[in-house]
Specification:
Layout (H helix, E strand, L loop, with lengths): L5 E6 L2 E6 L6 E5 L7 E6 L4 E6 L4 E3 L6 E8 L5 E8 L1
Antiparallel strand pairs: 1-2, 2-3, 3-6, 4-5, 4-7, 7-8
Length: about 90
């Protein structure tokens, strides 16, 4: 099975990618200034399950229960994007 890529446009020149999707243990995030961003992950009930400042390009999601989650990324310049991922 190939990995899915979700592109999330912040502005005309800034894009974040979340992959692989679905995932079993880690998410790779790519962005021009990823180390400056903060994330929040919520389950489909809207409950916050993770909040963190990003200091790396990998997020460990292995402790999450299988299901669909929303990830919200906010840059220091207050640009944001939201996308979903599946945890197997």
């Amino acid at each position: 099975m190939s990995a899915c890529f979700y592109e999330c446009t912040w502005s005309s020149n800034q894009v974040a990618e979340v992959h692989p999707n679905p995932t079993t243990s880690t998410l790779q995030l790519t962005s021009a200034n990823l180390w400056e961003d903060k994330i929040s992950i919520t389950d489909m009930s809207g409950n916050g399950v993770a909040f963190d400042a990003i200091d790396a390009k990998t997020i460990d999601v292995s402790a999450l229960h299988p299901g669909l989650y929303t990830i919200h990324i906010v840059s220091k310049k207050y640009k944001s994007t939201t996308t979903r991922f599946v945890k197997k």
